[in-house]
Amino acid sequence: MDQLIQENKLSKEEIFETLNQFITEVIGEEFVEEMDITPASSFTKDLEMDSIEIVAFSEKVKNHFGPNIDFTGWLSNMDLDEIIRLKLEDIINYIRECQ
Amino acid sequence: MARFLFVVPPFFGHISPTLSVGASLLANGHEVAWTGLVPLADRHIPDGGRYILPEAELAPHQDEIARILKRQDDGPSLSGPEVMKLALEETYIPFARIMVPGVMRVTEDFQPDVIVNDCITFAGALAAHLKGIPCVTTTPVPPDVMGDTANSAPKIFEWQQNLIQGLQRGLGIYTDEFVIHSHQMNIVFTSKEFAGFPYPDPHMKFVGPVKGRPNDTPFDWKKLEKATGPKVFVSLGTLLVDIRKEFFLKLIEAFGNGPITIVAATDPSVIDEWPENFIVQGFVPQADIIPKMDAVICHGGFNTVNDTFMNGLPMLITPIAYDHFHTAALIENAGCGIKVRYKRLRVADVQNAMQELLENPKYRLAAQHIRDTFTRAGGNAKAVSLLEDFALSHTVTENA
């Protein structure tokens, strides 16, 4: 069973690499170079994404990982503190849960 | 003749339109007073008006007031959700709690016929509710900055509701209705077209910008007259001190010693040596300068936004924090400008955007359309007649 699940699910590292690529596309390579993006990076504080960038990012996530990843719906159920604290690894975990 | 009491926050952008409208009410023979949280220099108060600071009621809260005002400096470095918390939870709600007792006492002394509260200064509407005095709200910014949170972000909506409910209950107001704003009349100092409200509620009165108070600050007009190429005005408003140097260094990189003349409203000392084509001055007669310009660069402060579109000029908007992003979205929707986010500001993007704004007539045409909606909305005269009619109709109702 474990073996099967592992074959179907992307690893955290694979998802992180993909998300990293999307972030670069959304906010621009030269700005990403100045950041040290890790799974612990927060969306609002470290990546300083504004709402338009988050929408662009979530579109890319949806297109890549499939329509059952309702990233915007997931975000809209958070309170302000949850959004402020939101880290890249939270999104990685969410994508893994949805797979 | 009626008595009007304006209740204002310690932010000049919100006070400024009330000074224009108040001056006209005074000229029409009404009595006008202002009350607030911090002192306001006499030179700002129109002749015949007065500013009443309820010092005794505010005295116990001076440390908290100073702390909250200082906290505003953090705004530019905070994220969107953090700014929402800063604004409502850490600023507007505590300010309202602190101000209500003083506004109540000023109301007893001045006996206004109408209380006019600024949209972020809830104490005015709350005192009006408690005293049974008719209330009008003034809104200097395009409203609905937070969007439709009831549907798009239910937990954020709940947070807003709880904070406002808590504020009202703390004052012994147990209605479920929110009384932090007037439900009878809300005068908004922009046009419904620009604000994206094609069919506003009947109590929302979009009157367009009102003329600022006279400003006869000296300026190097001779140097400006000598400029031959396009002229661009740059302002970061009165706040945002920390990022000035970085911002203007980028503008110098983009436009230094080029064909465009830049008029920069900033303290010249932030940069050691300005290029020849920059005219730099701390305080400027902005309303007289902008008509001579071809475009404007600003972060989205609404006084500069209003001055720009009142003159039908295109804008390069570089939103930084607060409601700047909302304003930037409105400008892009209206087609009268281009947004380059401050945090992602590339010199090449600024140069390209400015070239596009100066050479492609569609931006100027869209800006002129916004100017027409502003003018049609009626401005200062309309705001004054709305307030006069409101005072009259509410007096009649009371006597009947």
Automatic annotation (TrEMBL), chain A:
Superkingdom as given in the UniProt entry: Bacteria
InterPro entries: ACP-like_sf (IPR036736), PP-bd_ACP (IPR009081)
Pfam families, alphabetized: PP-binding
Domain Carrier: 33-72
SUPFAM superfamilies: ACP-like
Protein name: Carrier domain-containing protein
TrEMBL record, chain B:
Listed transmembrane segments: none
Keyword set, alphabetical order: Glycosyltransferase, Transferase
Entry keyword annotation includes Membrane: no
UniProt name for this protein: Glycosyl transferase
Superkingdom classification of source: Bacteria
Family, similarity comment: Belongs to the UDP-glycosyltransferase family.
One GO MF term attached to the UniProt entry: transferase activity
InterPro entries: Glycosyltransferase_28, UDP_glucos_trans, UDP_glycos_trans_CS
PANTHER family: STEROL 3-BETA-GLUCOSYLTRANSFERASE, STEROL 3-BETA-GLUCOSYLTRANSFERASE UGT80A2
Keyword Metal-binding appears in the UniProt entry: no
